[in-house]
Amino acid sequence: KPFYLPAIDTTSGASSRSPNSPYITSARFSFRRARARSAKKRASDQKPPIEHAVDATAATMSGRTQLWVEKYRPTRIDDLASQEEVTKTLRGAIAQGQLPHLLMYGPPGTGKTSTILAVARTLYHPSVLKDRVLEMNASDERGIKIVRDKIKNFASHSVSSQKFDGYPSPPFKIIILDECDSMTKDAQGALRRTMEVYSSTTRFCLICNYVSRIIEPLVSRCAKLRFSPLGRDAMQKRLLDIASAQDVNYDATIYDQILDRSGGDMRRAVTLLQSCHTFYGDKTPNVEELSGGVPASLIEPLWTAVKANNLTEMSRLIDSLTLEGYSAATCFSELHDIVLKDAAVTDAQKATFFEAVAAADKCLADGANDHLQLQTVCAVLCH
């Protein structure tokens, strides 16, 4: 704060106030405090060299650490791998400018979300895409409140009539509800009425893995598009394209292992390829370890002990698998592939094994012990 110096006595040449006057003391304190603030500001403006180095490193690494799943996500309908029937249907709807409510269902990683996002980019100019498309993950926002608040708020807004060259720009918005099979029944019931009220200005795209978990009134209001697991050839071509773009050179057997572990899930395949490159570089990767599967060195001896009816060895190997942290479900998946390909096992024996696995899987879902269920299934195999 500003301060005033005391008057000077011209006759004596002395100050009318002493050096210890409160006015002088306050002035000295204010000056010191202002000087300290100025020094602190100069120090904050000058970053230490180490902080500059960290920022530069982070900027350099941001491109390297980007997830390949997002980096190579298809942006156009023509870029989608497989799903010819679905893309053909959507192209016809876009050409006519009449997109209905959609229900996309199928296994994970088959291109459901990528497809509807590609459709949105085809319909709308990038400058209005954010205002025309609302993408939500229903597994995070699954209650009835989100339907009443967020969805209704977006759907109730009017659509601008602005047109762009090369984009159809239809007079409606799109709401994408991903993983909507996780929504509660009450939320699905509320959504039914919302779809009816705002059908003139909004189109809904429901995405799920299990269509049986969607209530029938919602299913009947949508055009159903089924996404099947991707073909091996289409997945391999896509993986090779990504590997070429990222300068990854692996033997053909590595790509075969990745495809075997992916089970038609393109997202899983691309993530596994990036993991191989991240952890192993140009060296030969251990795909089994990165995928979380049971190594052949553990599962094959178990199958040998089962075929030999060696219960003691079988029990020891199951104990080893449990101690290593492998779940019963993972072991069942590995045993399933082995039993299915073993010509020495009859069809009747395979059927008995699959029934035992189904029963054990139900028990695991109810909270049963992994170790005991694995023991039970292997005992059935021995029998």
Uncertain segments are 10-17, 46-62
N-to-C SSE string, H for helix and E for strand: HHHHEHHEHEHEHEHHHHHHHHH
Number of helices: 18
Q: What is the first-to-last residue Cα distance?
A: 93 Å
Given the helix and strand composition, which structural class is it?
A: alpha/beta
Main sheet: strands, sense, barrel: 5 strands, parallel
The count of strands amounts to: 5
Beta-strand proportion? 5-15%
For the record, the CATH architecture of the largest domain stands as: 3-Layer(aba) Sandwich
CATH topology of the largest domain: Rossmann fold
What average pLDDT do the residues reach?
82
Short description:
By secondary structure, the chain is an alpha/beta fold.
Report on the architecture of this protein:
- Helices cover 57% and strands 7% of the residues.
- Helix 7 links the parallel strand 2 and strand 3.
- A five-stranded parallel sheet has the order 2-3-4-1-5, sandwiched between helices.
- The protein is an alpha/beta fold.
- The chain is globular.
- It has 18 helices and five strands.
- The longest helix is centred in the N-terminal third of the chain and has 24 residues.
- The chain has four domains: 46 residues, no CATH class; 144 residues, P-loop containing nucleotide triphosphate hydrolases (Rossmann fold, 3-Layer(aba) Sandwich); 60 residues, Helicase, Ruva Protein, domain 3; 87 residues, Up-down Bundle (Zinc Finger, Delta Prime, domain 3), CATH 1.20.272.
